[in-house]
Amino acid sequence: MLEIKNLTFEADDGKKTVKIIDNISLSVPDGKFMVITGPNGGGKSTLARLIMGLEKPTEGQIIYNGTDITDMSVTDRAKLGIGYAFQQPPRFKGMTVRKMLSIANGSELSEKECCNFLAKVGLCSAEYVSRELDNSLSGGEMKRIEIATLMARKPKLAIFDEPEAGIDLWSFSMLVETFKNIQRTSSGTTIIISHQERIMNLADEMVVIAEGKIRKSGEKTQMLADLMCEFSSTPRCIRAEN
Amino acid sequence: MNKIDKELLSEIAGLHDVPQGAYNIRKNSDSAGRKSTDSIIIESKKDKPGIDIKIKPGTKNQSVHIPVIITETGITEMVYNDFYIGDDSDVLIVAGCGIHNSGDKETGHDGVHRFFIGKNAKVRYIEKHYGEGDGNGKKIMNPSTEVEMQENSVCEMEMVQIKGVDSTLRKMTANLGKNAKLTVTERMMTHGNQTARSDMLIYLNGEESSAQVISRSVGKDSSDQTFNPAVIGNNSCRAHIQCDSIIMDNSKIRSIPEIAANHKEAQIVHEAAIGRINGDQLLKLQTLGLTAEEAENVIIDGFLK
Questions:
Q1: How close A232 gets to chain B, by Cα (Å)?
Q2: Domain span including residue A9
Q3: Residue A203 C-beta-side C-alpha neighbours within 13 Å
Q4: Nearest to B244 among A73, A93, A103 (CB)
Q5: pTM (2 decimals)?
Q6: Domain segments of chain B: what residues?
Q7: What interface predicted TM-score (ipTM) does this complex get?
Q8: Number of domains making up chain A
Q9: In CATH, what number is assigned to the domain containing residue A143?
Q10: Among A193, B86, B87, B221, which one is least packed by beta carbons within 10 Å?
Q11: Which of B234, B273, B235 is nearest to B257 (CA)?
Q12: How far does the CA of residue B288 sit from the closest CA of chain A (Å)?
């Protein structure tokens, strides 16, 4: 169980201190598939980074399986089983895809094992295994390898920050299938930051964050219906509101 | 061979036993073993210290190991090695120098390697420099390399200095003939108060000759590095120089890639970058369970691989 209690994160925008996350409280039970959505700049990615420890909160607590991890290092959180896929994964000159997947997995992976992880994100070719994570790879390829890396890590709590960003339509369809598979088979907890309806449709629960606050949260079907109405003026929505 | 000798040979040449094929092992300015083969002849020079390595035309898939180790403090030497690589041959040459200095005197190895690469020949040359020992005496290596490449020849040079060399001045000059292709990969790490300078002058004289220079370095502590690879295009040719450095602590790095064209069909590109380890790289590896120190080592190892 992940519990977020009264979490606040402030940052200096050069002129004044701004609350990026404003007193958020949230619980994510084990095994749930949660999608966090909302407008750009609303604080979704910051919340994900706070959970992984990439940012330190100004106030509040993060409890994971009964342990207060608020002041815990990124490394120690990773060792507890929390994993994170970067929205913009960094490039590494000289490091191969195989090396990265092996570090993530905690053991030296064979070419075939690497291929199995890469195939799940649409990079079926064995050629990728020995490629370096440098500028020779496109942004989309980097993104897919990042997702494969988190899958190789097999965390108990997996956080994906906008996995769909920078991925082409064909690969996105494959990605949706991958997340469907995770949702069906994984006993772990998944949190995905996403704007995509097809990913939202996989959720057990959804949270909408805007201006650093939770605007809505709840079960997917009702949340999606509410979101649709928010951006539509169909008679059904108008009647429902009346 | 004692334990120190074996460790040095393992570091610089990956040798755990007497190598296959031709070899010449030099220890403390003396011969510690030599073997020629039918197609690779190794002979001592008559007029100065060093050896001639003569590879017969058409020699394929053979190797020559010529490591140098110094384990006594106070030895300084100058060695001249000439490689005559026959037409149509395809060989691997593994050189390198390892110094174990436990004393307080300066120990140094200066070497001049000259390569005469015949038509259609292919050479892969690996040179590793390494220093160790707990004495105060400095470990100094100054290699000088001259390469003459004939028509259609290919030469891949890998020069590595990862640890323990207090001072080095590397000089390299290459002249490429028609369709000759040269690739130089230089990897270096300095630490403490070490200094390193690498100067290259590559002349693309032949039509459609090409060169690629890849230099990757890491500067730690208060060390000082300077790279000055220069490529001069005197004919229709292609070349690319790429210098990348990671700067850490209080180290200093100067990177001066230089290109010149004396022919309108010359296409020569250079790029250079110096920067610290990217914070996101460290964080990425920490999200995979590595400590910051482990992450830093993985990044540096990969970069210098």
A1: 40
A2: 2-241
A3: 28
A4: A93
A5: 0.85
A6: 1-165, 166-305
A7: 0.91
A8: 1
A9: 3.40.50.300
A10: B221
A11: B273
A12: 5
